[in-house]
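Form 7-S
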Amino acid sequence: MLLTVVAWLLLLIAGFALILVPLVPEGASYGSGSPQGIPFVDALYLSAVSASTLGLGDVVIQDPSWRWLAPLEGLLGFGVITAAITWLTQIYPALSRRRSLSLDVWTTLEDYGASPPVQPSSVVRSWATRLAAVSVDLVQNTETFWFRENDPRLSLGPALRRLDDVVAANPDIEENRQLQRSLKVLREIMRSQYGPHAASHLAGNRE
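Output:
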């Protein structure tokens, strides 16, 4: 994601620099202590200052009809940075909830294979509730589905299979039925949004 944001900003800066190249140095005003340089380098610098909303003012376009480029680029740069920060603050809590659930299931059930013992009702209810949160995350932040894990203990796919074993071992317990409903809802959401083989994707080995 960081590389994507950097790429967006670089493309924004480069694009506006190409627009500004014909205007420097003749069409620009240089402040004291700001010597003229290579036109494209100066245009790139002016574009970077505008995109970062620094507004140093050491190089300014003189033509009034072109001055609107600086505030326009500043708004676009600010929008890209704000969108990236907003996305990060939404995406990583969702991934953290998914990974913590998967790791919790793994640490609890790893030693029992396909025949897990009866789990405390509070643990099963917690798994069902956290599965519901994962379902909501997949609806609200659909891109989280495509994040795959290097560590299989953090993968949701194996965790779902272990939870299936918990339900199958004791299907008549109320908490297990609640867990089964949460599993069903999650799989329905994954199938409707990502296709019939969505669950297997979450068992991948890389992010």
